Amino acid sequence: MQFLLSLQASEDAKKLVNQERSFACAEIESARAVVQRFGEALEEEERISQTSGKQELEELLEEVQEARRIKLLHQPSKVIDMEHELQALRIQIREKSIISVKLQREVCQYFI
């Protein structure tokens, strides 16, 4: 009788271990899927960022040209306003670049 109870307990323990192993594997796969989706989203964001960065650069160039034209027309107040806008845009681009690098580092940490 004692032997049968011991054998049953051993079988129950094996089942429990196998069940927990299955749960752990499922959680690992789920985590991998999340990391993969995060990586894909970051790649998409980087692609969009590069596209928008080029667009912002083109806009900056256009604004510089406009600023030069206005300066030639002797409207220094508009030039000053545009210089402030250009500086703000440069700061935004710099901040976005920093954020992009930080996100890339975080993604790399998940894959290590």
TrEMBL record:
Family matches, as InterPro entries: SCAB, SCAB_CC
Domain Stomatal closure-related actin-binding protein coiled-coil, first and last residues per copy: 8-107
One matching Pfam family: SCAB_CC
Superkingdom assignment: Eukaryota
Molecular function as annotated in GO: actin binding
GO biological process terms held by the UniProt record: actin filament organization; regulation of stomatal movement
Protein name per its UniProtKB record: Myosin heavy chain-like protein
Taxonomic lineage of the native organism: Eukaryota, Viridiplantae, Streptophyta, Embryophyta, Tracheophyta
